[in-house]
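[job 4417] fold queue: 2 targets
>>> target A
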Amino acid sequence: MAIIYQIQRPPSSIEQHYTPELLAQRLVRLVPVAPEDVVLDPAAGKARVFVKSLTARSILYCEVEEGIDFMSQSLVYDWAITNPPYHLLWKFIDKTSLEARKGFAFLVNVNGINTLTPKRLALLEERRFHMRHLHVCNVKQWMGRYYFYVFRRDAGAVQLSWDLRTWQ
């Protein structure tokens, strides 16, 4: 008779997945941030990998574990760049599409692609946001494909890029 052990997490427990720092450095280069732009990382995490990778003069961040909850803040910024908590992804997209002056760029899993339903894409278009870049990458510890999408206020063709490298 085999004994099967099952690890059960309490329903309120949410796993956190931190972005590899070198990947964050690579991804921020795909966002057309001007030196004078105000950039926000709405889910900075302990390591602040996107914050550290940015070269803009004015960088803001939120981190709920430090009592700075993006969802309850009212901020003014040009760009939002982050690896959002996936269980709040649409809420992050919705909020940034109301606040960001120039755009937002999020690192997401396949559910982040599935979140972009036709109805939601139409809403983003109504708010003048269009996907302008989709970058595909692999992160070893996350075991799968991840996507960095950049939405901007200007319409145009979507640029597709990818990394053959697996990030660690």
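>>> target B
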Amino acid sequence: MSRFRERVERKTNPQLVALIKDLCGETRERGSPVWRDIAMRLSGPTKKRAAVNLSKIEKYAKKNEVIVVPGKLLGTGIITKPVTVAAYTFSRSAREKLESAGGKALTIRELMAQKPDGSGIRIME
């Protein structure tokens, strides 16, 4: 059994396990490696999961860019650009600040439905 499969089977959150399996399935169907990359990052230890502040999105993202955070988006900092951010979870303040700047807050599953080929997506940790 592969190490990846062992890591997924140890997860106790059924929604996370289903998301990881769906991401891998999308990779097999479409041949898009970005979904596999996100699945690998989500399958790792919770302590190593990304926690990205809005200030980092403001600093590095371009206007109207699509960003994926394979972890939690936190509300520290300000954001002035309209960007689309898909994350596993959002803090309430991060979601409010992002939407007030004209951006969109999506789940990873929603983004996968909108962009099944994975093109134009940037992963940020």
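[job 4417] complete. Note on B: The first strand starts at residue 50 and ends at 53.
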